[in-house]
Each structure stands twice: as structure tokens, then as C-alpha cells.
Amino acid sequence: MKVEIWSDVMCPFCYIGKRHFEQAIEKLPFKNEIEVDWKSYQLNPEYHNTNNESVYDYLSRSKGMPIEQAKQMTKQVVDMAANAGLKIDFDTNIPANTFNAHRLIHLAAKHNLQDLAEEKLFEAHFVNSKNIGETSVLIDLAVEIGLDKDEAESVLNGNEFAEAVRYDIYESQNLGIRGVPYFVMDRKYGVSGAQPVQAFSDALTQSFTEWKEAQPKVTITSLNKNNDAVCDENGCEI
């Protein structure tokens, strides 16, 4: 069963939601039958950090709140992240435009490294205080997850996967998604936000049960009464 996750790598709740979702899946007996597809989303597509502003400056300016209020708000997020086993450092966090980071994720998906790319980008942004808006940082991350450096440079210095990112965002609008993280299960159910682990577990179980019941069932009838001309673990009947 496919689960599509719309996410932005500068969104702390997306990072927390990813961890809660993973913790839920790990406990489920059908975890190997879940296919995850990460989708691009930009919370602030027009943003570019040209003044080396901190996340507190960014929140204060964009939300019209005092710096101290921004710090208090982020402290609550830090506590929530800690409960999920994550360490987020907003004191040194660098706000950034994430369009090229999403293009890197699409490149990683081409090589079956999409989930690892998501994880490393979250870690770089929230834990290691890297500027994920810088091409050099993204190239280093590409190499770290096992992508070819020349290919990553070619993609990030060009326009490849730009339309794929835009299409993900367009698709989210058609689905009525107005915030992230947003988890779409089998294109049937949607779960919004960094829900608790149990909420993800319940939603996945319900979705998977219905998906499994809808799968075609094959009834095998053998017309070979002598059961010869067959190969099995014991060899071939000759």
C-alpha cells in the first residue's frame, strides 16, 4: 500500500511527524507491505535568506511577533521533538529556501535513496545547522547518501526535477492540502500534522486492512493430476 507524504524540509513538524510515522510502522506486522513516497511542498516558496537572519528573526518578521515570543514558541517544538527522540537546535538554525533541496530528493528517489535524503536533509537543517539553500551543502549531502557527485552537481546547477517539484505542489493543491506534514494513505485517507504514534498506527491499520481486502484474490486450480514436470526446493522431476 502506498503512503504519500507531503513535506517541507524546513518544517520541524514534518521532521517530528516522520519519526512518529516510522515508529508506528515499525510495530506493524505488515510494515514490509508499505511503500512510502515523499512529495515536495514549500511553506514559503518566495523566501531567500539574504540577510543571514536567524530563525527567531524570520518568525518574528513573518508572523509579526516579538523575538521572545518566537523563542518561546520554538521551545515548545524542541520539547515535542525531544519526546520523539530528536534534537532540534533553533539557536543556530538557518532558514532557507528549500526548492533545490526538493530537487535533490527527487534525484535521490531516482536511485531509491529518497527516504535517506529526507532524513539527512532534516538532520542537516535542524540538528547540524547547515544552510540547505546552498548548492555546495546539498552536493555534500548528495555524496553522503551515496549519490554520484557529478550527477548531483549537474542536477543542482541546472533545472532538472524542477517541474517534478512544482507538480507535487500542484497536486497538493488539488487534494486540498494546506499544511504539512500531510500523509495520504492509498489515496483514500489523509492524516494531517505530526500526530502521535498511536494515531498513525490506527490510520495505517485501517487503511491497510481496506487496501488488502480490495486486492485481487487468485484461486489456483491444478490441471496436472500427476504433478510431474515441476521444479521445487528438492529439484526437478524428470
Automatic annotation (TrEMBL):
Source organism, top-level taxon: Bacteria
Boundaries of every DSBA-like thioredoxin domain copy: 3-204
Molecular function in Gene Ontology: oxidoreductase activity
Name of protein: Disulfide bond formation protein DsbA
